[in-house]
Amino acid sequence: MIEDDFEHYWLKNRKSLLAENKEYCEIEESYRMHSGFDWLLWALPAVAGLLAYRFVSLQSEILKWLVSALAVVVVFLLCVWIKSTISGLRSLDEVEKEIKAQAFEEFKRKSNHS
Length: 114
Hints:
Layout: H1 2-19, H2 22-30, H3 36-55, H4 61-87, H5 92-113
Helix pairs in contact: 1-5, 3-4
């Protein structure tokens, strides 16, 4: 019963609870582009896709596009991983779970006092 009430409370107040957490806001801000290096990490997937399309020697145009798209996705994921590793911060999901657990404990405490 209390879990259902909390889930309703969490869905209703999630954004405001997360916005109040300093660590969550810092991590979220780190995903924005602030420097030339950040722009480079986002440009690399496009370059990789263009190079893959140009240098992959397949007869089928569709297969060339698929290989190019795959190259873009792989390089994009690699760039996001590099950026998150360089920043040295925890993942947003990890911090959100911690915030949710803290909010649940606070919710239980308030429910017991009512």
